[in-house]
């Protein structure tokens, strides 16, 4: 053998128990962790098909939709974004992308890779888009698709969605919404708001481990996919065939790829937990968590990055970096208190801190613990900054 | 709320304990199942970066390579195939694909989606390719890339790889190999055999849960990726940026996507188990498992689909469907004995049965149990067929 057995793999595995209060993943409940440790099922086993059917019902519930083409992709949240672009856009198609943070930038990059004509509609970091602004772009640009983010985690901004769908349809445009960091925590009414495609990571407010993306297409979007004149580039997220494996079109379930039963079982349990609690109560728990965190942060003297509270995303609260060293704060929270807090991301790197309240962590005891850790870390990082001056 | 809470999610979760002896996934060891139920880690946590580094060493060991660009993609095995095509091929590039079963067909489909010029080199189902045949195609077609499968699970055929790499390089062609169902169980010497890219699912001989694909690119392949004149279509498996997150190029680890710590921890443990056993012993255990299965199948009167034993893939043994009803056999094995046996796939559907011996299941007790189940299921399915006549 040319390559010897790596010594590093002979050490025992050690996994610390962290409190994940960044922009996701969040911790998952012991019930979900227990579920994913159950025996593996084959991807063609009837029992796994049953679990997939249950997941579909769960997605329809949290998305509030009746769409047939509803399923989970075996990949992380970025895959959802890429599935939107590669399924709905053909080379030369015009896509309008709302950019007020990293996710609009990322979506623009992806749409460009699939040879779409990308038009960016921008707003200031920390702000969102009005119906009037959106209508102006729909009118002047006539795009095939509008992409917008309900919860922009890189800034902590919330985007109201009501009215955008009907506006888009008046201008013969499809509406795609990223609800990765918002669904489950804030109201989202896919059908009533006439949204054509929405996708979400499952490791945030939904309380599942990362690794899957849930996605749903309206009949209008499904029609666009089936009427394409060019093939979908990516086999892995080709909804024409992936939708068959998920039994979205008829009752055949041909093999498309090997799904991961452990992750599917975990998602099934996290959706069951929300079902048992009731979606409204699940959202309420996030709202209360946000209020508790906000109050605590105010008391500690933090300044909110999103001034206008109506524009704040309740799952990710962003605060301005000012009289403290942000790296030291993050390091102290992690090393001394096992609490993960996120710095900025992309355009906000170095400018803000982001504190997430999601899923299992949206409870008063955890938030209280985190606020105490933040108090200590803030003191430490202020002292550190003063000493450096 | 328009969509009420789904009643189906209020039932308790029930996961049966099956013995997965199809073409994968196989069962995973309790140690791996225990590991994946540990607390979730954030994708930017140092502890997870450490686990990713350990996984890289483990992949280098099982692939027998020193390649820097070695990592795991957060998606199932098909993603490995698609990553090969989308990273190494540009529109118009010629790719030679060895087709002797489903995987060559699938690879041709994917390469076509990325606008490559696809040339197929075919062999009979149940057979493989000689160096002479390969050289003829390299000489007459001058492809940029040759794609070939070491373990063709749809037929149970093994492809010897020694000599193909140097042959390809003599004709200025890259060599891509699918080792999804073979690595860990049969000899695979990536560097010595001059292979430019190889990928594998982890849910087969490596003993991890499905959901990740491991992949490695030679410096020659890496150079081709970095010298592309057109962008890589797919963000999710763009090795230029994914390789950064896996620390393959330098010491920055920018955020590319949210990895799944549970699956990474599971893969780490499965690689640790192989490291502790020793790769040679791990392969030997598969060889012995195959021999035991073969002897038992012969005793039961099964006829092997791959006549020439030197062409048989030891992880997936295929037998001919003849004097029994194959659907009844599969159903009886599953319903009465909890044993999953696979039917044919794609071109072999209805013609063969496939029995896998992989990873945790490659042990004498499991194989003995499965042979007993097969005996009963065969009797049942013979009686069923006779009664139908």
TrEMBL record, chains A, B:
Q: Name a Pfam family for this protein.
A: Aminotran_5
Q: Which residues carry this modification: N6-(pyridoxal phosphate)lysine?
A: 204
Origin, by domain of life? Eukaryota
Q: What is its EC number?
A: 2.6.1.44
Q: Does the keyword Transferase apply?
A: yes
Q: Spell out the InterPro entries in the cross-references.
A: Aminotrans_V_dom, PyrdxlP-dep_Trfase, PyrdxlP-dep_Trfase_major, PyrdxlP-dep_Trfase_small, SP_NH2Trfase/AEP_transaminase
Catalytic function, reaction form: glyoxylate + L-alanine = glycine + pyruvate
Give the record's GO CC terms. peroxisome
In this chain the Aminotransferase class V domain maps to: 41-345
State the needed cofactors, names only: pyridoxal 5'-phosphate
Record keywords, A-Z: Aminotransferase, Pyridoxal phosphate, Transferase
First-tier enzyme category under EC = transferase
What are the recorded Gene Ontology BP terms?
Answer: glycine biosynthetic process, by transamination of glyoxylate
Give the binding site residues for substrate: 354
Citing just one GO molecular function, the answer is: L-serine-pyruvate transaminase activity
Concerning PANTHER family, the annotation shows: ALANINE--GLYOXYLATE AMINOTRANSFERASE (PTHR21152:SF40), AMINOTRANSFERASE CLASS V (PTHR21152)
Of which family is this protein a member? Belongs to the class-V pyridoxal-phosphate-dependent aminotransferase family.
This chain's protein is named Alanine--glyoxylate aminotransferase
Q: Which organism is it from?
A: Phyllotreta striolata (Striped flea beetle)
Taxonomic lineage from the root = Eukaryota, Metazoa, Ecdysozoa, Arthropoda, Hexapoda
């Amino acid at each position: 053998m040319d390559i010897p057995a790596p010594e590093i793999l002979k050490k025992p595995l050690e996994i610390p128990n962290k409190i994940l209060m960044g922009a996701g993943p969040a911790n998952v409940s012991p019930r979900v962790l227990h579920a994913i440790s159950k025996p593996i099922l084959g991807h063609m086993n009837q029992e796994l098909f049953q679990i997939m059917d249950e997941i579909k019902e769960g997605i329809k519930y949290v998305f509030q939709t009746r769409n047939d083409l509803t399923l989970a992709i075996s990949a992380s949240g970025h895959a959802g974004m890429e599935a939107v672009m590669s399924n709905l856009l053909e080379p030369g198609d015009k896509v309008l992308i709302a950019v007020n943070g990293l996710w609009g930038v990322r979506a623009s990059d992806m749409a460009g890779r699939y040879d779409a004509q990308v038009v960016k509609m921008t707003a200031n970091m920390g702000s969102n888009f009005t119906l009037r602004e959106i209508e102006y772009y729909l009118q002047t640009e006539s795009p095939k698709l509008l992409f917008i983010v309900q919860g922009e985690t890189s800034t902590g901004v919330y985007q109201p969605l009501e009215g955008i769908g009907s506006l888009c349809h008046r201008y013969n445009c499809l509406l795609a919404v990223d609800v990765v960091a918002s669904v489950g925590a804030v109201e989202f009414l896919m059908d009533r708001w006439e949204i054509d495609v929405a996708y979400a990571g499952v490791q945030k407010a939904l309380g599942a481990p990362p690794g899957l993306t849930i996605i749903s297409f309206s009949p209008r979007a499904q029609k666009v996919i089936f009427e394409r004149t060019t093939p979908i580039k990516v086999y892995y997220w080709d909804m024409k065939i992936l939708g068959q494996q998920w039994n979205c079109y008829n009752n055949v379930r041909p093999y498309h790829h090997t799904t991961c039963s452990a992750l599917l079982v975990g998602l099934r349990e996290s959706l069951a937990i929300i079902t048992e609690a009731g979606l409204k109560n699940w959202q309420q728990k996030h709202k209360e968590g946000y209020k508790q965190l906000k109050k605590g942060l105010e008391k500690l003297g933090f300044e909110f990055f999103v001034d206008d509270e109506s524009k704040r995303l309740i799952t990710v609260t962003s605060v301005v970096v000012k009289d403290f060293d942000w790296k030291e704060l993050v390091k102290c929270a992690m090393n001394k208190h096992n609490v993960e807090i996120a710095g900025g991301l992309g355009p906000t790197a170095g400018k803000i801190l982001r504190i997430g309240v999601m899923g299992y962590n949206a409870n008063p005891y955890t938030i209280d613990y985190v606020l105490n850790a933040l108090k200590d870390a803030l003191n430490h990082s202020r002292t550190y900054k003063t000493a450096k001056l």
